[in-house]
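Onboarding guide, step 5: your first structure request.
Type a short instruction followed by the sequence, for example:

Predict the 3D structure of this protein.
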Amino acid sequence: MKKSLAISVLAATMALGAAPMASFAQGGGQCASHGSPDRMSMHRSHDGMQGRMFQRLDLSEAQRDQIFKIHHDQAPEMFKLKNSQRAAATKLRELSRAATFDEANAQALATELGQAQGQLALLRAKQHAQIQAVLTPEQREQLKTSFEQRRNGKHTRADPSTKS
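The system replies with structure tokens like these:
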């Protein structure tokens, strides 16, 4: 029984994972909607913590569509900025490990890193404001309470001892 259940779960997982991978492969390794080589990281914001948090808000279909569009429309810019941030941080780290330290180059990289981080913060703030505009006053209050609970460490998590 357990073996057949495990095989069924594995088969379902493979089937669900095959469609996105096939789409990715057909696009020559690029996300068809964004023209980006890293589809998974660009769509991460549609899932994860935000997805679970928005599930608790009891969003209407129209609200879900609007929030998806907000994320989708900003995904290419978010991806580009994250790549810029990562590249500048990597170069700065490598420079700090070099035999000789080039302060002018380090300053330029630090400035580049700061600009990327600032632009990411601005884009996230813009995205947050756009999402807030989609929510009802009750949903905004519920989201605010949820953020405050997470910030204060009072959010609920699944008990790890119950996982099989």
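Each response can be followed by summary notes, for example: Residues 38-152 form a domain with the Four Helix Bundle (Hemerythrin (Met), subunit A) fold (CATH 1.20.120.1490).
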